[in-house]
C-alpha cells in the first residue's frame, strides 16, 4: 500500500533528499517543488552538515525534518523516493540502503565511482526488486532528442564512427578544480564525473555499449601548473593577479550553501585551483570501440574560451554534425543547427529552438519523466542503473587505460553482476 500523501484527492510521493549542495538544493529541491509540488512532498532532508541542510531546507521551502544519518532518516521518515545528490563516492552506500529499505532511488550522475560499487548497486537492485533512475538530463535536451530521431530513422544509413569533443570554459571547468571533484578518490576523475554524461549519450545514440577504451589524460593548466598557491580564494594574497579568482561573496546562493556551513566541516567552495594535491587530469582524450563496431574519437578539455560541444556521426549514407554553444564570448543564435549531409546529395539545416529551463529544457522533461506517471518515452530517454553502470564503466576504463598505457576492455573491470540483468 502506498504511503503517498494526499493533496486534494491526488497523491504526492514521499521524497527524501540526501545531499544539499548546489544540485540537490536547486534542481532536486527548490525547482522540484516549484513545478512538481502536486507530485512530490519532502519528508526528509539529509546531509552530514546540519547547517547546510538547514539553509537548504529554507531555500527549498519545506518544513521537512533534517537528518544527518541515512539509516535514521530511512527508519523515521519512511520515504518512497530517495534522491541522492551527495558526493559521488558515497552514492553506492546510500543507494543500496535506500533500495533495501524498499525505496525507489533517483541518483545524480555519475551513479558511482568504481566498478566494484557499480556491481554492488546492480546486485542490490536485482536482490530487492526496487529501481534506480540515473539523472542523465542531456538525453532530454531538445537537440539530443532530434539527433536520436534522425539516427533511428537511419538518416545517414549505418553509423560507422563518431567524433565527440566537449569543451568546458574557464568558469565551469575551473569549478571542478575548486571543489571536491579535484580528487580522484571523490569523483573518479572527470573521465567519470563529467564524461559519464557524454559516454551515456553515446551509448544511447548508438544503442550499444563500449567494448574497449584507449585513453590519455594529463594535467596542463590546474594543480601544480599554476603560478600561485593558496588554500582558497577568500584568503589568497594573489587574488588581484589570479585569473581564476572567485569572489564568492557576490553570489548569495553559494554563500548560503557553503560559507557558514564550512565552519562545520572545513569544506570550502572556493578552493585554490592550483592546489598541489589535485590529482585529476584537466586535458583528456579517448578512443572507444563499441560492441556494434562503431569507433569513437572523444575529448574533454576544461579551460576553454567556449562552453559546449562538437558532435558528428559518420554513416554509410552521410553525416550528422552540430557545433553547440552553451556559453561563449560572441553572439550566437537562440537555437541549435544540426547539419544533415547526404552523400552525393543535398545538405539539410535543421533548427532546434532552445527551450526554457536548465539544459535548454532537458531538466524539466527529465523531472516530468520521473514524477508524472504515464509520461511517454518513445526515445528511451529514461535511464536506469544499467545505463548508469555502462557509462561509468567507460570512464573507469579510460582512467585504467590512462594509467596503464594500454587499451582496456570493459569486461576486465568486473563491474557487472554475474547474474543475468533484465
Set down the secondary structure blueprint:
Layout: E1 5-7, E2 10-18, H1 22-36, E3 40-46, H2 50-60, E4 66-67, H3 70-77, E5 81-84, H4 91-100, E6 104-107, H5 115-128, E7 132-134, H6 142-152, E8 159-169, H7 172-178, H8 184-187, H9 190-193, H10 195-206, E9 210-218, H11 252-259, H12 262-265, E10 283-290, E11 295-304, E12 307-315, E13 318-327, E14 335-342, E15 347-353, H13 362-371, H14 385-404, E16 408-409
Parallel strand pairs: 2-3, 2-5, 3-4, 5-6, 6-7, 8-11
Antiparallel strand pairs: 1-2, 8-12, 9-10, 9-16, 10-11, 12-13, 13-14, 14-15
Helix pairs in contact: 1-2, 4-5, 5-14, 6-10, 10-14
Describe, in plain words, how this protein is organized in 3D:
The protein is α/β, with parallel strands linked by helices and 422 residues long. The protein is built from 14 helices and 16 strands. It has helices spanning 22-36, 50-60, 70-77, 91-100, 115-128, 142-152, 172-178, 184-187, 190-193, 195-206, 252-259, 262-265, 362-371, 385-404, and strands spanning 5-7, 10-18, 40-46, 66-67, 81-84, 104-107, 132-134, 159-169, 210-218, 283-290, 295-304, 307-315, 318-327, 335-342, 347-353, 408-409. The protein has a nine-stranded mixed sheet. Strands 1, 2, 3, 4, 5, 6 and 7 form a seven-stranded mixed sheet that branches. The model has no long low-confidence stretch (mean pLDDT 95).
Amino acid at each position: 500500500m502506498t504511503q503517498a500523501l494526499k493533496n486534494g484527492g491526488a497523491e504526492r510521493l514521499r521524497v527524501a533528499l540526501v545531499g544539499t549542495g548546489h544540485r540537490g538544493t536547486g534542481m532536486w529541491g527548490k525547482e522540484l517543488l516549484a513545478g512538481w509540488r502536486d507530485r512530490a512532498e519532502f519528508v526528509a532532508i539529509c546531509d552530514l552538515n546540519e547547517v547546510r541542510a538547514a539553509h537548504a531546507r529554507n531555500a527549498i521551502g519545506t518544513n521537512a525534518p533534517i537528518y544527518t544519518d541515512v539509516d535514521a532518516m530511512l527508519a523515521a521518515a519512511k520515504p518512497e523516493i530517495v534522491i541522492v545528490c551527495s558526493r559521488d563516492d558515497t552514492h553506492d552506500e546510500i543507494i543500496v540502503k535506500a533500495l533495501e529499505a524498499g525505496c525507489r532511488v533517483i541518483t545524480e550522475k555519475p551513479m558511482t565511482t568504481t566498478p566494484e560499487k557499480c556491481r554492488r548497486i546492480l546486485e542490490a537492485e536485482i536482490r530487492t526488486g526496487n529501481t534506480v533512475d540515473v539523472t542523465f538530463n542531456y538525453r532530454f535536451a531538445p537537440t539530443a532528442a532530434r539527433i536520436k530521431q534522425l539516427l533511428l530513422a537511419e538518416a545517414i544509413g549505418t553509423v560507422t564512427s563518431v567524433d565527440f569533443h566537449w569543451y568546458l570554459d574557464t568558469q565551469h571547468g575551473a569549478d571542478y578544480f575548486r571543489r571536491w571533484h579535484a580528487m580522484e578518490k571523490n569523483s573518479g576523475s572527470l573521465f567519470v564525473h563529467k564524461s559519464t554524461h557524454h559516454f551515456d549519450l553515446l551509448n544511447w545514440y548508438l544503442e550499444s555499449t563500449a567494448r574497449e577504451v584507449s585513453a590519455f589524460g594529463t594535467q596542463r593548466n590546474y594543480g601544480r601548473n599554476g603560478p600561485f598557491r593558496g588554500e582558497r580564494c577568500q584568503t589568497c594574497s594573489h587574488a588581484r593577479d589570479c585569473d581564476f579568482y572567485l569572489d564568492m561573496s557576490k553570489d548569495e546562493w553559494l554563500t548560503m550553501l557553503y560559507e557558514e556551513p564550512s565552519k562545520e566541516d572545513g569544506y570550502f567552495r572556493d578552493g585554490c585551483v592550483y592546489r598541489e594535491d589535485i590529482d585529476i587530469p584537466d586535458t583528456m582524450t579517448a578512443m572507444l570501440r563499441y560492441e556494434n563496431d562503431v569507433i569513437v574519437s572523444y575529448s574533454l578539455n576544461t579551460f576553454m574560451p567556449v562552453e559546449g560541444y562538437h558532435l558528428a556521426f559518420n554513416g554509410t549514407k552521410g553525416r550528422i554534425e552540430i557545433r553547440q554553444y552553451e556559453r561563449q564570448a560572441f553572439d550566437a543564435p537562440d537555437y541549435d543547427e544540426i547539419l544533415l549531409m547526404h552523400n552525393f546529395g543535398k545538405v539539410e539545416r535543421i533548427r532546434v529552438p532552445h527551450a526554457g529551463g536548465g539544459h535548454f529544457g532537458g531538466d524539466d522533461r527529465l523531472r516530468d519523466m520521473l514524477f508524472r506517471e504515464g509520461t511517454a518515452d518513445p526515445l528511451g530517454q529514461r535511464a536506469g542503473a544499467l545505463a548508469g553502470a555502462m557509462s561509468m564503466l567507460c570512464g573507469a576504463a579510460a582512467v585504467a587505460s590512462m594509467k596503464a598505457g594500454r587499451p582496456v576492455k570493459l569486461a576486465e573491470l568486473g563491474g557487472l553482476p554475474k547474474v543475468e540483468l533484465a
